[in-house]
Amino acid sequence: MAPTKKQETEKTGLAKGVNKGTKTIPIISKPRPSRRKGAQSKRTNFVRSIVKEVAGLAPYERRVIELLRNGKDKRARKYSKRKLGTYGRAKAKVDELQRVIAESRRAGH
């Protein structure tokens, strides 16, 4: 009965025998660097939040907020899709701006 992949015994380094073959180091699988691409670090998040605080909203973001306040959610999503390129990004941006509106309401009252 030959050893299976999971329970391989260590090779002896000899050409003959039960555990014949070159001694090898098992390959440790770790995620590729490309899997980490786009993951935000704490520092990046912090810097972006400071920039957002100082610079305020972009003109298109102000328009989207205006559309949301007037109850035109679908139009707001369509407009942000036009500006950002993909529907997924547009939905995320609209959600973010709705949170901004909610926060401003909380701060106002």
Can you characterise this structure?
By secondary structure, this protein is mostly helical. It has a domain at 57-108: Ribosomal protein L36 (Arc Repressor Mutant, subunit A, Orthogonal Bundle). It contains 5 helices and no strands. It has helices at 33-36, 42-55, 59-69, 73-84, 87-108. α3 runs antiparallel to α4, α3 crosses α5 and α4 packs across α5. The longest helix is centred in the last third of the chain and has 22 residues, at 87-108. The protein is elongated and about 80 Å long.
Low-confidence segments, given as residue ranges, are none
- Total number of helical segments? 5
**Please, what is the average pLDDT?**
89
Largest sheet: none
CATH fold-type name of the domain at 57-108: Arc Repressor Mutant, subunit A
Query: What sequence of helices (H) and strands (E) makes up the elements?
Result: HHHHH
Fraction of residues in β-strands = under 5%
Radius of gyration: 28 Å
CATH secondary-structure class of the domain at 57-108: Mainly Alpha
Backbone structural class: mainly alpha
Give the CATH H-level superfamily of the domain at 57-108: Ribosomal protein L36
Residue share in helix: 55-70%
Tell me, briefly, the overall form.
Answer: elongated
Distance between the termini: 76 Å
Find the count of extended strands (DSSP E, 2+ residues). Answer: 0
Examine the secondary-structure arrangement and name the CATH architecture of the domain at 57-108. Orthogonal Bundle
GO molecular function: structural constituent of ribosome
Protein name: 60S ribosomal protein L36
Organism: Podospora anserina (strain S / ATCC MYA-4624 / DSM 980 / FGSC 10383) (Pleurage anserina)
Keywords: Ribonucleoprotein, Ribosomal protein
